[in-house]
Design goal:
By secondary structure, this protein is mostly helical. Helix content is 54%, strand content 5%. The radius of gyration is 14 Å and the shape is flat.
């Protein structure tokens, strides 16, 4: 994300970044859905730039400690 590369995922952990900074697919996503999203990013330069810009903006203020704390909190919340 910091490099401005769009992230396509169906992992629920990606709800942590602000909406629009990743391409979040549903939990029942298959390889074709992911391929379609990647293809759209490659073909739609305006959408690619919006997601890329949102990703860069989202992580610009993150420090290593911020990310580590968020990951630990997320993992601990799932262990209840």
């Amino acid at each position: 994300m910091a490099a401005g590369l769009p992230v396509v995922t169906n992992l629920p952990a990606t709800v942590l970044p602000p909406p629009g900074s990743t391409v979040q697919l549903g939990p029942d996503t298959d390889a074709r859905d992911i391929a379609a999203a990647v293809s759209r990013l490659l073909e739609d330069s305006e959408w690619h730039e919006r997601v890329s810009s949102a990703a860069r903006d989202a992580v610009a203020s993150w420090t290593f400690d911020d990310v580590a704390r968020t990951v630990v909190d997320f993992v601990l919340a799932g262990s209840d």
